Amino acid sequence: MARARNLMVATGLLAFAAAGMAFPFYMASSRNPVIDPTKPLPPQATFRGPYINTGSRDVGPDAGPQKK
Protein backbone atom coordinates (compact mmCIF):
# COMPACT_ATOMS: atom_id res chain seq x y z
CA MET A 1 0.00 0.00 0.00
CA ALA A 2 2.78 2.44 0.89
CA ARG A 3 4.62 1.72 -2.36
CA ALA A 4 1.49 2.41 -4.44
CA ARG A 5 0.88 5.63 -2.54
CA ASN A 6 4.47 6.76 -3.09
CA LEU A 7 4.14 6.00 -6.79
CA MET A 8 0.94 8.09 -6.98
CA VAL A 9 2.60 11.01 -5.18
CA ALA A 10 5.68 10.81 -7.41
CA THR A 11 3.50 10.72 -10.54
CA GLY A 12 1.54 13.73 -9.31
CA LEU A 13 4.72 15.68 -8.57
CA LEU A 14 6.15 14.86 -11.99
CA ALA A 15 2.92 15.93 -13.70
CA PHE A 16 2.89 19.19 -11.71
CA ALA A 17 6.54 19.90 -12.55
CA ALA A 18 5.96 19.15 -16.24
CA ALA A 19 2.96 21.50 -16.34
CA GLY A 20 4.99 24.22 -14.62
CA MET A 21 7.84 23.87 -17.10
CA ALA A 22 5.49 23.80 -20.10
CA PHE A 23 3.53 26.90 -19.05
CA PRO A 24 6.08 29.51 -20.28
CA PHE A 25 6.25 27.81 -23.67
CA TYR A 26 2.45 27.79 -23.85
CA MET A 27 2.28 31.50 -23.01
CA ALA A 28 4.97 32.35 -25.57
CA SER A 29 3.25 30.42 -28.32
CA SER A 30 -0.26 31.77 -27.65
CA ARG A 31 -1.76 33.92 -30.39
CA ASN A 32 -3.02 36.68 -28.09
CA PRO A 33 -0.39 38.94 -26.52
CA VAL A 34 -0.22 38.96 -22.73
CA ILE A 35 -0.15 42.78 -22.68
CA ASP A 36 -2.16 44.64 -25.31
CA PRO A 37 0.21 47.24 -26.82
CA THR A 38 -2.70 49.43 -27.95
CA LYS A 39 -3.86 50.09 -24.37
CA PRO A 40 -1.99 52.03 -21.66
CA LEU A 41 -0.19 50.09 -18.96
CA PRO A 42 -2.09 49.42 -15.74
CA PRO A 43 -1.11 51.56 -12.72
CA GLN A 44 0.67 48.63 -11.04
CA ALA A 45 3.03 48.23 -14.00
CA THR A 46 3.84 51.93 -14.29
CA PHE A 47 4.56 52.16 -10.55
CA ARG A 48 6.67 49.01 -10.49
CA GLY A 49 8.72 49.87 -13.58
CA PRO A 50 11.34 52.27 -12.14
CA TYR A 51 11.98 50.03 -9.13
CA ILE A 52 12.37 46.71 -10.93
CA ASN A 53 16.20 46.93 -11.09
CA THR A 54 16.98 48.79 -7.88
CA GLY A 55 19.29 46.01 -6.71
CA SER A 56 21.35 46.03 -9.88
CA ARG A 57 25.00 47.01 -9.65
CA ASP A 58 25.08 47.93 -13.33
CA VAL A 59 24.52 51.68 -13.10
CA GLY A 60 24.87 54.00 -16.05
CA PRO A 61 25.96 53.48 -19.63
CA ASP A 62 28.88 51.29 -20.64
CA ALA A 63 32.24 53.04 -20.49
CA GLY A 64 33.35 51.50 -23.75
CA PRO A 65 34.57 48.22 -25.18
CA GLN A 66 36.09 45.85 -22.66
CA LYS A 67 39.75 44.93 -23.14
CA LYS A 68 40.86 41.42 -22.35
Question: What does this protein structure show overall?
Answer:
It is a single chain. By secondary structure, the protein is mainly alpha-helical. It has a domain at 1-35. Helix content is 50%, strand content 0%. The chain has 2 helices and no strands. The longest helix is centred in the N-terminal third of the chain and has 28 residues, at 2-29. It is elongated, with a radius of gyration of 22 Å.
The proportion of residues in beta strands is under 5%
Q: How far apart, in Å, are the first and last alpha carbons?
A: 62 Å
According to DSSP, the number of beta strands is: 0
Low-pLDDT segments: none
Shape: elongated
Following the backbone from N to C, one meets helices and strands in this order, namely HH
Q: Over all CA atoms, what is the radius of gyration?
A: 22 Å
The main β sheet shows up as:
none
The percentage helix is 40-55%
Residue-averaged pLDDT, rounded?
78
Structural class: mainly alpha
The number of distinct helices, counting runs of at least 4 residues, comes to 2
